[in-house]
TrEMBL record:
Taxonomic classification: unclassified sequences, metagenomes, ecological metagenomes
Cross-referenced PROSITE patterns: FPG_CAT
Record-linked InterPro entries: FPG_cat (IPR012319), FPG_N (IPR035937)
Gene3D superfamilies named in the record: MutM-like, N-terminal
Formamidopyrimidine-DNA glycosylase catalytic domain boundaries: 2-79
Name by which UniProt lists this protein: Formamidopyrimidine-DNA glycosylase catalytic domain-containing protein
One Gene Ontology term of the molecular function aspect: DNA N-glycosylase activity
GO biological process entries: base-excision repair
């Protein structure tokens, strides 16, 4: 599991790269679709395409992206 300072560092690092950008498409690396816990890759791609990233922040050990419509959460899943 990642430690809280690592998540904070990653969040601060990625913020300038993502803020005010639009999501063009979503895909899993190596076609490993189990990373999408609640929807298929195609459903997530349809929901996320063209969404603007308005805020990048952290809640506990999750990285949160505030979008035009909703939120996207990431967990680093480090050991």
């Amino acid at each position: 599991m990642p430690e809280l300072p690592e998540v904070h560092t990653v969040t601060n690092f990625i913020r300038p790269f993502l803020l005010n950008k639009r999501i063009r498409s979503v895909r899993s690396l190596n076609n490993y679709n189990k990373v999408f816990a609640t929807h298929s890759a195609s459903q997530i791609n349809k929901l996320m395409s063209n969404q603007k990233i308005k805020r990048v922040w952290r809640r506990g050990k999750f990285i949160v992206l505030d979008l035009d419509s909703g939120h996207l959460l990431f967990h680093l899943r480090m050991t």
